[in-house]
Structure formats: C-alpha cells, structure tokens
Amino acid sequence: MRVLFRPALLLAAVSTMLLAFQCGDDEPQPTCVGGTVLGAHCGSPSGNYGYVLEVPADYPTSVSWTDPATGTNYKHVVTALNLPTDLQRAGHKVYFVSHPATNAELAALGVRTADCPAPPLPVTLESVNSTPCQ
Fold this sequence. Notes:
Layout: H1 7-22, E1 33-40, E2 51-54, E3 63-66, E4 73-80, E5 93-100, H2 103-107, E6 122-129
Parallel strand pairs: 4-6
Antiparallel strand pairs: 1-2, 1-5, 2-4, 3-4, 5-6
C-alpha cells in the first residue's frame, strides 16, 4: 500500500514541530560573573543595605558610586543584599548569579534610616561562591 502525503498534512506536521521548538524557555539564562567586594554600603547598621561589589563593565545594570568613607569613585557596582558573612571582606573576589532586588526583598530588610545615602543598584544573589564560575 502506498501512502501519499498531502501538502496540507505535511504543512501541519512541520508547523507542529516548529511550534514545539519555539515554546521553550525564552527567558535569558542568568550569567555567573566575578566581582570584588568593596565593603559595606554604609557604616551605620540601621542604614546599611548590604555589600557593594565592583563588577565588570559589561554587567547589564551596574551603576557608578562614590564610597562616602573614602571618596573613591567606582564606575561599575551593585549592592548585594544577601552576601554571606564569610565573604564580607573588602578585596575578596566573589562569583555570583543575581537578579535586581524586588520590592518584597527590599521590604524584608526592614526600615532603613536616613543615616546613609541610597545604595547603588540593590541585587539579590541567587548563588555566590569564592571559586570561579564553571
């Protein structure tokens, strides 16, 4: 018995296969980056949001920041809200995946005082390590 493919049937099969491949996850995958811990965002515990990290120039949402304690200007930084205690040392190199902090994550920090200027871009670390990205 010979099977004949009709153009409409072939088109439907090909379209279904293409749609199946296009329905994958279109979200960009987080990228692991290396950064250097500069120190606490602020010396006042009630005003501190986290630790400032100097990041590569191509980090998508980094901002410039002047350290109020030293007057040093950094061109590309973010503020890590949840840097683990064992990595909170100035000059320490860390490797991390992050996302911009949500309003809920910022609210979870509690009320901040006006003792400190606003932190450079707050981010939440999804993963962090002291060894280079794999």
